[in-house]
Amino acid sequence: MSHILSSRSLSFAQTLVRMNTVSAHSNLELIDFVRDHLAGLGVRSRITRSADRRKANLFATLGAGKPAGVIVSGHTDTVPWDGQEWSVDPLSASVQAWPEAVGQDGEIERVEPRLYGRGSADMKSFIAIAVANAELFLESASPFAVHFAFSYDEEVGCFGVRELIADMKDANVKPVACIIGEPTLMVPAIAHKGVYRYRCCVRGKEAHSSLTPQSVNAIEMAARVIGKVRDMAEGFEQNEARYEGFDVPFSTASVGQFQGGIADNVVPRDAEFRYEFRNLPTADAVAMQKEVLAYASRVEPAMKRVAPEAGFKFETICEIPSFLGSATDPVTRLAQRLSGESGVTQVAFGTEAGLFKNAGIPTVVCGPGSIQQAHQPDEYVTLEQLARCELFLQGLASAPQIG
Ligand SMILES: [Zn+2]
């Protein structure tokens, strides 16, 4: 691949990486930058805002008047870097020309030039290169439009994109396909598991620990439900039909956090735990959660007999649907053609792909950089990957696409 990354694309990537768009912050600086740039080219953006108006999605059609075409999609937020040891400033967007790395044989070797910074791989560079090449989409001879869809709050549960998709429907825009530029090393990815995460608050009744019959032990009741989650996890491992290509070829369940109790001699009134399901695309996570709720409702009557206020309260933290595309789908074929890759892959991380797919839009995940560097200290993407991404997007601009 002899394509050299344009200085304009690199500079746009650096500009976006330098903006702090950690999910807990506002992303408006980035959204305003993209909106203003597109406005300068005569493109109007549809902005949908979060309830507190500190964050926004941007949706823009390049090639207004043409039939709807392919969506180029990415999330604008990043994970934080608190507590991580970085050797560069996470917002520096520094380019290291030929960094040295220790190879597998212990030899020092020179590696591909890299762009460093939070979001460089996951996934501001993809957005930046698309925006830097906006003119090409506008000048394209393709009979179809291209759409930019940039969301907020992906990293905390794919919240923003739901508004964006709803707004697209309101506007009666019906794109034919979607390419999400999450880091896959430019190999088209056609499947990932879902991530369904819940919090369970357990209310018991406290008492001196010598008087247990007058109490409801919140920790022990929590433990029963946790045991149910564990039993389900073992059931998946033993019984679920395997789906090869994932690191773990069956659905998983796990409890990630637990709090409860105040003293050794007090029966605890409160306990709380969080758990998650990562379901195969062929398994139903909603049914999994229903099974937990049904189990809890069988435990609850005995608690309420001692204390009517006792019981379980469940809250949803996030529900990111699994994604299952197809190797033969036209958008997958298009991504293969544009990336020069003949194969497809499956990824271990959640994306917005399932939400686009569930909205009836065939989707593929394909973007620069590796998930190995995402969320890590010293996150980086190689300029070689960015060059491949630029070639991919420039190819999309000149492709007849899919109608
Ligand atoms: Zn991402």
Structure description:
The chain is α+β, with helices and mostly antiparallel strands and 403 residues long. It folds into two domains: 7-191 and 323-398, Zn peptidases (Aminopeptidase, 3-Layer(aba) Sandwich), CATH 3.40.630; 195-320, Alpha-Beta Plaits (2-Layer Sandwich). It is built from ten helices and 19 strands. The strands form six sheets. Strands 1-2-8-3-9-18 form a six-stranded mixed sheet. The chain has a four-stranded antiparallel sheet with strand order 13-15-11-16, covered by helices on one side. Helix 3 packs parallel to helix 10 (383-398) and helix 8 packs across helix 10 (383-398). It is elongated, with a radius of gyration of 24 Å. It starts with 6 loop residues before the first helix and ends in a 5-residue tail after the last helix. The model has no long low-confidence stretch (mean pLDDT 95).
Runs in which pLDDT lies below 50 for 5 or more consecutive residues are none
Rg to the nearest angstrom? 24 Å
Task: Compute the number of structural domains.
Answer: 2
The counted number of beta strands is: 19
CATH topology of the largest domain, what is it called?
Answer: Aminopeptidase
Total of helices: 10
